[in-house]
């Protein structure tokens, strides 16, 4: 399942939550009205008071009069709310019994927070991560908090290099979107911790409530291929990569090279994201020379552009064999 499909499904899940919230509130209202009919009258009066204040304000240009009307409405509203709370408590019910209850008070079960452009709420991103973890359970275990310094050899400064890389990646994740560099390229042989750090960045950024897209190089290639040969629906995957506030690509260099697709679309992806000022985080086993040979100068120039990004090189023994 693509991220776009997961997001659509999750938005439907959140819409169902809101319907459940509304149904639950109606049931609580009916219960309170049955136990004390005066509560219904008081709530209707509160609505009528607000409507009446609006009508009184129509056509009034005197600022003092407008303030007096608003204060009169607020004073009556406070009195009505106090009476409702008193009656609810007398029934043994909580003061907020007649308020909408949300599973997430930050986004009010919409999945979004902030002003335009809104971003996904942390609760929404956690659910996405859990869904994705169903496909790759290792991701949920790879966080900065589970980083094990003791497993890293000290010989040839391997531990110092990886600790420095970890510090830079954590600063990047904690500072996003106001980072020193837009782009990060992790270089090094297999088993040095690049995928771990990439997943740590993804976990921290999404935990902070920002939207991010984490794909392997092969998944990236499949999105490119569908963009090239498929329908508009199939092309959504590539558009998601173009538009993601933070795009993370793991194992760059392991994807197939297909004529008119791999190199051309990778250049488009990198170039468009740089033009838009978006953040891209990549990890690869290739060195600079191998990247140049595989993708050509245009792609390499984007990957190694010092004005927009930083390269972090790791060296040492394969940690998976220790």
TrEMBL record:
<dbReference type="GO" id="GO:0006260">
    <property type="term" value="P:DNA replication"/>
</dbReference>
<dbReference type="InterPro" id="IPR002611">
    <property type="entry name" value="IstB_ATP-bd"/>
</dbReference>
<keyword id="KW-0067">ATP-binding</keyword>
<dbReference type="InterPro" id="IPR027417">
    <property type="entry name" value="P-loop_NTPase"/>
</dbReference>
<feature type="domain" description="IstB-like ATP-binding">
    <location>
        <begin position="181"/>
        <end position="297"/>
    </location>
</feature>
<dbReference type="GO" id="GO:0005524">
    <property type="term" value="F:ATP binding"/>
</dbReference>
<dbReference type="Pfam" id="PF01695">
    <property type="entry name" value="IstB_IS21"/>
</dbReference>
<keyword id="KW-0547">Nucleotide-binding</keyword>
<protein>
    <submittedName>
        <fullName>ATP-binding protein</fullName>
    </submittedName>
</protein>
């Amino acid at each position: 399942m693509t991220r776009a499909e997961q997001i659509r499904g999750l938005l439907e899940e959140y819409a169902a939550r809101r319907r459940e919230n509304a149904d639950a509130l109606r049931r609580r209202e009916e219960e309170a009205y049955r136990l004390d009919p005066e509560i219904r009258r008081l709530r209707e009066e509160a609505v009528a008071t607000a409507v009446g204040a609006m009508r009184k304000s129509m056509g009034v240009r005197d600022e003092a009069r407008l303030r007096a009307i608003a204060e009169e409405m607020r004073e009556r509203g406070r009195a009505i709310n106090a009476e409702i709370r008193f009656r609810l408590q007398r029934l043994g019910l909580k003061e907020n019994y007649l308020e909408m209850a949300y599973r997430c008070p930050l986004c009010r079960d919409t999945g979004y927070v902030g002003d335009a452009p809104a971003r996904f709420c942390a609760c929404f991103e956690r659910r996405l991560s859990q869904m994705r973890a169903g496909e790759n359970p290792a991701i949920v275990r790879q966080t900065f908090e589970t980083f094990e310094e003791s497993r890293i050899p000290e010989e040839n400064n391997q531990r110092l290099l990886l600790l420095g890389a970890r510090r830079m990646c954590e600063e990047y994740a904690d500072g996003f979107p106001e980072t020193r560099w837009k782009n990060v390229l992790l270089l090094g042989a297999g088993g040095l911790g690049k995928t771990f750090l990439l997943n740590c960045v993804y976990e921290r950024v999404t935990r902070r409530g920002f939207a991010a897209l984490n794909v392997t190089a092969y998944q990236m290639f499949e999105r490119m291929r569908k963009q090239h040969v498929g329908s508009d629906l199939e092309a959504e995957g590539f558009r998601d990569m173009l538009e993601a506030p933070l795009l993370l690509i793991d194992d760059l260099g392991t994807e197939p090279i297909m004529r008119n697709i791999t190199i051309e679309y990778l250049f488009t992806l990198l170039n468009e994201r740089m033009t838009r000022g978006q953040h891209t985080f990549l990890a690869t086993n290739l060195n600079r020379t191998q990247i140049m040979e595989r993708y050509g100068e245009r792609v390499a120039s984007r990957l190694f552009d010092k004005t927009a990004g930083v390269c972090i090189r790791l060296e040492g023994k394969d940690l998976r064999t220790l």
